[in-house]
Amino acid sequence: MSASLVRRGLQIVDPQYDKPNKRKKKSDVFTLAPQNNKLIKKVRKQGKEFKINLLSTEKKLTVTEARKNNKSKEKLLEENLRKLKRIKKASRVQLDKNLVKQIIDRAVNKRPIRKIKPKTEKKTAFTEEDFKKFEEEYLN
Length: 140
What we know:
Layout: H1 3-13, E1 40-45, E2 48-53, H2 63-69, H3 73-90, H4 97-109, H5 128-139
Antiparallel strand pairs: 1-2
Protein backbone atom coordinates (compact mmCIF):
# COMPACT_ATOMS: atom_id res chain seq x y z
CA MET A 1 0.00 0.00 0.00
CA SER A 2 1.08 3.45 -0.79
CA ALA A 3 1.14 6.29 1.66
CA SER A 4 -1.65 8.13 -0.18
CA LEU A 5 -4.01 5.15 0.23
CA VAL A 6 -3.25 4.97 3.96
CA ARG A 7 -4.03 8.72 4.31
CA ARG A 8 -7.34 8.36 2.48
CA GLY A 9 -8.25 5.44 4.73
CA LEU A 10 -7.44 7.47 7.84
CA GLN A 11 -9.57 10.40 6.58
CA ILE A 12 -12.54 8.05 6.13
CA VAL A 13 -12.16 6.60 9.63
CA ASP A 14 -11.29 9.88 11.38
CA PRO A 15 -12.84 12.98 9.72
CA GLN A 16 -10.70 15.32 11.86
CA TYR A 17 -7.49 13.77 10.55
CA ASP A 18 -5.24 16.35 8.88
CA LYS A 19 -2.51 15.13 6.66
CA PRO A 20 0.89 15.97 8.10
CA ASN A 21 2.98 18.50 6.24
CA LYS A 22 6.14 17.07 4.82
CA ARG A 23 7.82 20.43 4.69
CA LYS A 24 8.65 22.14 7.90
CA LYS A 25 7.70 25.78 8.07
CA LYS A 26 10.48 28.18 8.70
CA SER A 27 10.10 29.14 12.30
CA ASP A 28 10.68 32.67 13.40
CA VAL A 29 12.36 33.34 16.67
CA PHE A 30 9.34 35.45 17.51
CA THR A 31 6.94 32.51 17.20
CA LEU A 32 8.65 30.85 20.19
CA ALA A 33 7.61 33.69 22.50
CA PRO A 34 4.24 33.36 24.22
CA GLN A 35 1.31 35.34 22.81
CA ASN A 36 1.32 37.73 25.81
CA ASN A 37 4.87 38.90 25.12
CA LYS A 38 4.51 39.51 21.39
CA LEU A 39 4.16 43.01 20.03
CA ILE A 40 1.07 42.81 17.90
CA LYS A 41 -0.90 45.65 16.37
CA LYS A 42 -4.49 45.24 15.28
CA VAL A 43 -5.35 46.93 12.01
CA ARG A 44 -8.75 47.24 10.38
CA LYS A 45 -9.11 47.43 6.63
CA GLN A 46 -12.43 47.26 4.86
CA GLY A 47 -14.21 46.05 7.98
CA LYS A 48 -11.80 43.15 8.58
CA GLU A 49 -9.38 42.95 11.45
CA PHE A 50 -5.77 41.92 10.87
CA LYS A 51 -2.99 41.30 13.34
CA ILE A 52 0.46 42.56 12.42
CA ASN A 53 3.57 41.37 14.21
CA LEU A 54 5.70 44.47 14.83
CA LEU A 55 8.87 42.49 15.41
CA SER A 56 8.74 40.45 12.24
CA THR A 57 11.89 40.42 10.17
CA GLU A 58 11.89 41.74 6.63
CA LYS A 59 13.17 39.93 3.60
CA LYS A 60 16.94 39.95 3.49
CA LEU A 61 18.65 41.52 0.50
CA THR A 62 21.04 39.53 -1.58
CA VAL A 63 24.31 40.96 -2.82
CA THR A 64 23.03 41.38 -6.38
CA GLU A 65 19.89 43.18 -5.22
CA ALA A 66 21.95 45.46 -3.00
CA ARG A 67 24.25 46.30 -5.91
CA LYS A 68 21.25 47.17 -8.08
CA ASN A 69 19.85 49.46 -5.39
CA ASN A 70 23.12 51.08 -4.40
CA LYS A 71 24.69 53.41 -6.90
CA SER A 72 28.40 53.61 -7.39
CA LYS A 73 30.35 56.75 -6.54
CA GLU A 74 30.85 57.49 -10.22
CA LYS A 75 27.12 57.43 -10.92
CA LEU A 76 26.43 59.68 -7.94
CA LEU A 77 29.11 62.09 -9.15
CA GLU A 78 27.62 62.17 -12.65
CA GLU A 79 24.12 62.84 -11.29
CA ASN A 80 25.37 65.63 -9.03
CA LEU A 81 27.28 67.25 -11.90
CA ARG A 82 24.20 67.11 -14.12
CA LYS A 83 22.15 68.77 -11.38
CA LEU A 84 24.77 71.50 -10.89
CA LYS A 85 24.81 72.22 -14.63
CA ARG A 86 21.03 72.60 -14.61
CA ILE A 87 21.22 74.97 -11.63
CA LYS A 88 23.96 77.01 -13.30
CA LYS A 89 21.98 77.24 -16.51
CA ALA A 90 18.81 78.31 -14.73
CA SER A 91 20.48 80.90 -12.51
CA ARG A 92 22.31 82.95 -15.12
CA VAL A 93 21.76 86.67 -14.69
CA GLN A 94 22.87 89.44 -17.03
CA LEU A 95 24.62 92.13 -14.96
CA ASP A 96 25.48 95.63 -16.00
CA LYS A 97 29.23 96.33 -16.20
CA ASN A 98 28.89 99.42 -14.02
CA LEU A 99 27.06 97.43 -11.36
CA VAL A 100 29.75 94.73 -11.37
CA LYS A 101 32.44 97.40 -11.03
CA GLN A 102 30.64 98.99 -8.08
CA ILE A 103 30.29 95.64 -6.33
CA ILE A 104 33.99 94.88 -6.79
CA ASP A 105 34.99 98.36 -5.58
CA ARG A 106 32.86 97.96 -2.49
CA ALA A 107 34.42 94.57 -1.76
CA VAL A 108 37.93 95.99 -2.11
CA ASN A 109 37.32 99.17 -0.08
CA LYS A 110 35.03 97.53 2.50
CA ARG A 111 32.87 100.65 2.54
CA PRO A 112 29.51 101.46 1.10
CA ILE A 113 29.65 103.21 -2.22
CA ARG A 114 28.56 106.83 -2.20
CA LYS A 115 27.20 108.20 -5.36
CA ILE A 116 28.99 111.41 -6.27
CA LYS A 117 26.67 113.88 -7.90
CA PRO A 118 28.21 116.08 -10.54
CA LYS A 119 28.35 119.70 -9.46
CA THR A 120 26.02 121.86 -11.45
CA GLU A 121 26.21 125.61 -11.57
CA LYS A 122 23.29 127.42 -10.10
CA LYS A 123 21.37 129.28 -12.71
CA THR A 124 19.77 132.58 -11.96
CA ALA A 125 17.24 134.68 -13.79
CA PHE A 126 19.60 137.68 -13.77
CA THR A 127 22.44 138.20 -16.21
CA GLU A 128 25.82 139.86 -15.61
CA GLU A 129 24.53 143.08 -17.13
CA ASP A 130 21.64 143.18 -14.66
CA PHE A 131 24.10 142.81 -11.74
CA LYS A 132 26.23 145.68 -13.09
CA LYS A 133 23.20 147.96 -13.43
CA PHE A 134 22.08 147.10 -9.89
CA GLU A 135 25.55 147.77 -8.54
CA GLU A 136 25.75 151.16 -10.22
CA GLU A 137 22.28 152.13 -8.97
CA TYR A 138 22.99 150.94 -5.45
CA LEU A 139 26.32 152.70 -5.12
CA ASN A 140 25.11 155.96 -6.67
